Amino acid sequence: MSKVFQATASAPVNIACIKYWGKRDTKLILPTNSSLSVTLSQDHLRSTTTSRADPSFAEDTLWLNGKLDEIKPGGRLATCISEMKRLRKELEDANPNAEKFSHWRVHICSHNNFPTAAGLASSASGFAALVYSLAKLYQLPASPKELSLIARQGSGSACRSLLGGFVAWREGAAADGSDSFAEQIASEADWPAMHALVCVVSDDKKDTSSTAGMQRTVETSALFSQRLTVVPERMRAITKAIQNRDFDTFAAITMKDSNQFHAVALDTDPPIFYMNDVSRAIITVVTEYNRVALEKCGKRKAAYTFDAGPNAVIYAPRENMKEIIELIVSYFPQESFNDPFQLFKSAAVQGRRMDGFNEGVSKRFGIGAVKTLIHTCVGDGPRVRGDEASLLGHDGLPKSLA
Ligand SMILES: Nc1ncnc2c1ncn2[C@@H]1O[C@H](COP(=O)(O)OP(=O)(O)OP(=O)(O)O)[C@@H](O)[C@H]1O
Ligand SMILES: C[C@@](O)(CCOP(=O)(O)OP(=O)(O)O)CC(=O)O
C-alpha cells in the first residue's frame, strides 16, 4: 500500500476582549489596531480539519460541514493553501531527503461542532484548524507565530486561534504584514480560573459580515478614528490585568471595549446593529450583578462582550459561574442546561438572584430568547488528532458522505 500523506488537527475559538475592527490592507488582512482575546477550550467549541495530499487528486477541494465549499482563485482559502504549499516547497528544496509532494493537490475536510457564520467565531477556529492541519501534513517546523501570519490572511481573528491562553494580535507597521502576528501574553495555566458562558441568542447567519461591516466603518464612521486613539492604552492595561489575574480591571476594560465597538458599528453609514433586545437585556443584568458586587466587595464579578452578532460571551472567574448561570436562567429560562463542570444536580437549572439584586432591571424573557448556554473556560492552542479522528475516508472523500 502506498504511503498516505494526511493529518488531522483541531483548533479553538477565541473571543476578543479588545476588538479587531478595521483593516489598513484588505488583501493581506492588516488591522488598524492591535487586539487581544481569550482562547476558549476545544473540549466544548472547536473546528476539526483533515488535510490529505495525493497525486491522484485533480483539484484542491474543501468540504465544510459535509458540503463542498468553493476555493476561489486568489481568495482567502486559496491564499492560505498556497502559502502552506510554498513553505513545504522551501523545506523540500532545502532538504534533499525530504519527500516531494508540495505540488500534489490536497483534499481538506472540516467540521465545526457549533453553528458556522453565526458570530461564534467559526472563521477563526476554521482557518486556524486549516493552517495547522496543513502544517502537520507538510511536517513544517513553523512556530505558532509564523503560522499566525498565514491564518491571518484567511480571517484576521484566526491568527489568535493558533495559540492558547490569552493572545495579542500585534497590528504591526510593515507594509508586507511580516510584523502583524499573534503572540501569547499569558498561558491557560497562568489563569485557569477564567471561565466563559456563551449565551447563544441567535445561530442564524448574520446580515452584515464582519469583513463588509468593518470596511464600511473605516470608510464612514467619524467615531472610528477616536477609537484608534484609545486602543493602545487599553492593550497595555488589559495585558497587565491578565498577568496580575486582576479580574476587576479585566472586566471593566472588556465591557468598555465591547460597548465602543458596537458604538462604532452604529456610527457606520448605513448603521450596523449587531446586538438586539435580548443582547441589551443581558448587558443590563450583568451590569446590575456587578453593581451589587461592587457594593458588597468592591470588585466586578463578570464581564460581557459581544462580537459581530447578538450572542453574548460572559467572562467570569470559575467561582462565580454557578450564580451567574442561575441569574441568567432567571431572566432567560432554559429547558435544560448541559453542565460540563457539574455545578448542578440536575439539567433543569432553577433561576435564582442574589440578595440585593434589583429584579426590575429587565423583564423576564420566554424560553428560546437565549437558545443555549455553553459553559466553557480558557483553553489551549491547536491539537494534533490521531488517525481515528480523520474526516476523510480511504478514498480521499469525506466519511460523512460515504
Ligand atoms: N471549519 C472551517 N474551515 C474552513 N473555513 C471555515 C470553517 N468554518 C468557517 N469557515 C469560513 O468562515 C466563514 C464564516 O465566517 P464569518 O466571519 O462569516 O462568521 P463567524 O466566524 O462565525 O463570525 P465572526 O468572525 O464575526 O465571529 C465560512 O463561511 C467559511 O468560509
Ligand atoms: C467582531 C470581531 O469578531 C471581528 C472579527 O472579524 P473577522 O476576523 O471575522 O474578519 P475578517 O478578517 O474580515 O475575516 C472582533 C474580533 O474577533 O477581534
TrEMBL record:
<keyword id="KW-0752">Steroid biosynthesis</keyword>
<keyword id="KW-0443">Lipid metabolism</keyword>
<protein>
    <recommendedName>
        <fullName>Diphosphomevalonate decarboxylase</fullName>
        <ecNumber>4.1.1.33</ecNumber>
    </recommendedName>
</protein>
<dbReference type="InterPro" id="IPR041431">
    <property type="entry name" value="Mvd1_C"/>
</dbReference>
<dbReference type="GO" id="GO:0005524">
    <property type="term" value="F:ATP binding"/>
</dbReference>
<dbReference type="GO" id="GO:0019287">
    <property type="term" value="P:isopentenyl diphosphate biosynthetic process, mevalonate pathway"/>
</dbReference>
<dbReference type="GO" id="GO:0004163">
    <property type="term" value="F:diphosphomevalonate decarboxylase activity"/>
</dbReference>
<dbReference type="Pfam" id="PF18376">
    <property type="entry name" value="MDD_C"/>
</dbReference>
<dbReference type="InterPro" id="IPR036554">
    <property type="entry name" value="GHMP_kinase_C_sf"/>
</dbReference>
<keyword id="KW-0456">Lyase</keyword>
<keyword id="KW-0547">Nucleotide-binding</keyword>
<dbReference type="InterPro" id="IPR029765">
    <property type="entry name" value="Mev_diP_decarb"/>
</dbReference>
<keyword id="KW-0753">Steroid metabolism</keyword>
<dbReference type="GO" id="GO:0016301">
    <property type="term" value="F:kinase activity"/>
</dbReference>
<keyword id="KW-0808">Transferase</keyword>
<dbReference type="InterPro" id="IPR014721">
    <property type="entry name" value="Ribsml_uS5_D2-typ_fold_subgr"/>
</dbReference>
<keyword id="KW-0418">Kinase</keyword>
<keyword id="KW-1207">Sterol metabolism</keyword>
<comment type="similarity">
    <text>Belongs to the diphosphomevalonate decarboxylase family.</text>
</comment>
<keyword id="KW-0756">Sterol biosynthesis</keyword>
<dbReference type="InterPro" id="IPR020568">
    <property type="entry name" value="Ribosomal_Su5_D2-typ_SF"/>
</dbReference>
<dbReference type="InterPro" id="IPR005935">
    <property type="entry name" value="Mev_decarb"/>
</dbReference>
<keyword id="KW-0444">Lipid biosynthesis</keyword>
<dbReference type="Pfam" id="PF22700">
    <property type="entry name" value="MVD-like_N"/>
</dbReference>
<comment type="pathway">
    <text>Isoprenoid biosynthesis; isopentenyl diphosphate biosynthesis via mevalonate pathway; isopentenyl diphosphate from (R)-mevalonate: step 3/3.</text>
</comment>
<feature type="domain" description="Diphosphomevalonate decarboxylase-like N-terminal">
    <location>
        <begin position="11"/>
        <end position="182"/>
    </location>
</feature>
<keyword id="KW-0067">ATP-binding</keyword>
<dbReference type="GO" id="GO:0016126">
    <property type="term" value="P:sterol biosynthetic process"/>
</dbReference>
<dbReference type="GO" id="GO:0005829">
    <property type="term" value="C:cytosol"/>
</dbReference>
<dbReference type="InterPro" id="IPR053859">
    <property type="entry name" value="MVD-like_N"/>
</dbReference>
<feature type="domain" description="Mvd1 C-terminal">
    <location>
        <begin position="196"/>
        <end position="384"/>
    </location>
</feature>
